[in-house]
């Protein structure tokens, strides 16, 4: 109820503050679209005049920086519903976008302007596990949490992201990095096959029979090639006991711990995640991670780091991997807006000057600011840049800067800082899943030298650019 009231207020506030189409007025050809959908679609369809249901749908967007209003949310119950949604949408010129978990940081799962037709995949929530062949077939309407839970029942794990409430569709198709990626690679490296509904309505049941399409969706599958309805994933058998560790520090130790991470990061054990965070403006740094094995074994891998970096407190929790994943399960704070910036850092690490620059910016920033530096390496870097559409290989860290509830001024300051910081201290590339509308030359920052090939493949599978938004792969360079 609270969120319903919230979003209603948000709607009204947005209307009065902008020239966007009124949410209760109609999109061009909306009546035709409605007739078509009413006739063909078995699942529920919420237009703007279904105020309550429409608001619930809109509110699924995790970032509350909602600035536009879809014509309707369709909840297909099967593949035929998706094919028919595409037919109706295309016939009446509505751009179409898929939504899995709604965690796009720019709300691209409701498009980039008013009047998108949103295909919400929530009903495609089947998961089947084949223990013998070590695969899972996963509907893209699932959250990571359901996937982790299901494979864990059989003694398996899948390398996804750290936050269990993110959608399988958006995260896995655009890379996917988390606690197990040093050991098993990115999520997209573990896509073996997929079922996709193309722009012309054709269903590709086995993307592996279309090698270039499969190549493209392993890293750019959430960038406009079609609606991916199911993924066949490689899952990995794991030992029974895993260990979560948590090291706390004082703020003035930050330069020291980053310099020790730089020194030791390339040699830390591969079955270990290692993430350093300062979450908010007032908080202290900590390092946490998960190791696949016992606390005793883990200690033997990180004691040197602990000796050198001198944490204030060290704690270990041994347990079942699924339970450990949920320790970090921060659930969304209702009503928050946020802005994320992504940086990759080369194998020498973040320089002392870079750390100084970051800490100084943090001190002077007028809004809430947090950052995290996650150790990459291991299996992620064993794979060649051109083997999939996820090119970001050979880096030591991925770093995210987060501003919560940023003002306009803070957004500008963050943008100015990020450009300078990226130019001076980090690699040119940025992570496509931390999608960022302000990013210049995003085509090459996200996809590197693979961008041209991605455009060619897009032209083949979606020649009329039915699946399009500001940062989808275009049909022409
Ligand atoms: C709180 C939070 C934590 C995060 N943690 C991590 C992390 O640990 N590791 C990591 O790698 N990333 C992380 N991310 C980034 C995350 O990978 C992206 O936001 C991802 O796009 C979210 O997927 P989704 O399905 O929830 O999003 P959605 O908003 O539903 O989709 C994102 C994009 O993918 C497209 N899309 C979604 N499903 C499909 C589909 N089935 N077929 C075709 N296109 C589709 C949508 O159209 C949209 O453009 C995090 C983001 C947030 C907000
Ligand atoms: C998309 O791009 C257009 C034109 O560049 C811009 O006006 C609009 O604000 C952008 N929308 C989003 C959501 O980034
Ligand atoms: C890492 O964990 C996997 C799966 O539990 C195990 O098979 C492998 O031997 C471990 N690797 C190392 C180097 O210990
Ligand atoms: C860590 O420090 C302790 C005591 O200070 C010492 O006994 C131990 O040998 C050190 N271990 C390493 C790996 O440096
Ligand atoms: C250190 O961690 C343990 C748990 O491992 C906890 O019980 C204790 O309170 C912590 N101490 C401090 C000073 O935070
Ligand atoms: C990747 O590049 C190498 C040459 O550098 C080439 O031989 C190989 O075929 C390419 N692989 C793909 C999948 O494009
Ligand atoms: C932009 O960032 C640079 C580097 O942090 C800083 O020197 C400069 O003053 C900033 N400019 C503005 C307008 O904030
Ligand atoms: C749809 O597009 C795909 C990919 O280009 C093609 O293989 C298929 O034949 C097309 N289907 C129809 C009905 O045109």
UniProtKB/TrEMBL annotation:
UniProt keyword list: Glycoprotein, Oxidoreductase, Signal
Pfam families per the UniProt record, alphabetical: BBE, FAD_binding_4
GO molecular function: FAD binding; oxidoreductase activity
SUPFAM superfamilies for the chain: FAD-binding/transporter-associated domain-like
Signal peptide: 1-17
Domain FAD-binding PCMH-type: 66-238
PROSITE patterns from the UniProt entry: FAD_PCMH, OX2_COVAL_FAD
InterPro entries: BBE, FAD-bd_PCMH, FAD-bd_PCMH-like_sf, FAD-bd_PCMH_sub2, Oxid_FAD_bind_N, Oxy_OxRdtase_FAD_BS
Stated family: Belongs to the oxygen-dependent FAD-linked oxidoreductase family.
Protein name: 8114_t:CDS:1
Organism: Cetraspora pellucida
């Amino acid at each position: 109820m609270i969120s319903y009231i919230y979003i209603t207020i948000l709607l009204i506030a947005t209307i009065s503050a902008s020239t966007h189409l009124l949410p209760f007025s109609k999109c061009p050809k909306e009546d035709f679209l409605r007739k078509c959908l009413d006739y063909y679609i078995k699942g529920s369809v919420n237009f703007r005049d279904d105020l309550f249901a429409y608001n619930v749908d809109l509110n699924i967007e995790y970032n509350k920086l909602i600035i536009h209003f879809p014509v309707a949310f369709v909840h297909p119950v099967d593949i035929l519903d998706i094919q028919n949604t595409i037919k109706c949408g295309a016939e009446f010129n509505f751009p179409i976008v898929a939504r899995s978990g709604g965690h796009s940081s720019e709300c691209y799962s409701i498009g980039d302007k008013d009047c998108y037709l949103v295909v919400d995949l929530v009903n495609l929530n089947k998961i089947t596990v084949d223990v013998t062949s070590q695969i899972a077939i996963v509907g893209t309407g699932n959250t990571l949490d359901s996937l982790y839970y299901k494979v864990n029942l059989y003694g398996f794990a899948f390398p996804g992201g750290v936050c269990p409430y993110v959608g399988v569709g958006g995260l896995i198709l655009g890379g996917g990095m988390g606690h197990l990626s040093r050991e098993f690679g990115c999520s997209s490296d573990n896509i073996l096959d997929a079922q996709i509904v193309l722009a012309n309505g054709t269903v590709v049941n086995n993307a592996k029979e279309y090698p270039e399409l499969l190549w493209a969706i392993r890293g750019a599958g959430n960038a406009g090639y079609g609606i991916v309805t199911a993924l066949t994933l490689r899952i990995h058998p794991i030992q029974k006991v895993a260990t979560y560790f948590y090291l706390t520090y004082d703020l003035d130790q930050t330069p020291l711990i980053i310099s020790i991470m730089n020194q030791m990061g390339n040699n830390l054990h591969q079955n270990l995640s290692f993430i350093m965070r300062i979450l908010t403006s007032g908080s202290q740094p900590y390092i946490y991670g998960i190791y696949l094995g016992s606390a005793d074994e883990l200690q033997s891998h990180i004691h040197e780091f602990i000796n050198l970096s001198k944490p204030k407190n060290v704690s270990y929790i041994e347990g079942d991997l699924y339970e450990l994943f949920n320790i970090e399960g921060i659930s969304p704070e209702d009503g928050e807006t946020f802005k994320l910036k992504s940086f990759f850092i080369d194998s020498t690490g973040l320089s002392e000057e870079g750390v100084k620059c970051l800490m100084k910016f943090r001190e002077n920033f007028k809004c809430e600011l947090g950052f995290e530096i996650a150790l990459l390496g291991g299996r992620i870097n064993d794979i060649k840049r051109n083997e999939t559409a996820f090119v970001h290989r050979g880096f030591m860290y991925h770093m995210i800067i987060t501003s919560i509830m940023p003002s306009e001024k803070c957004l500008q300051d963050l943008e100015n800082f990020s450009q300078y910081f990226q130019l001076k201290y980090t690699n040119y590339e940025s992570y496509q899943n931390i999608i960022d509308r302000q990013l210049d030359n995003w085509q090459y920052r996200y996809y590197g030298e693979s961008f041209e090939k991605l455009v060619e493949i897009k032209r083949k599978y979606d020649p009329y650019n039915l699946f399009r938004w500001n940062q989808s792969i275009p049909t022409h360079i």
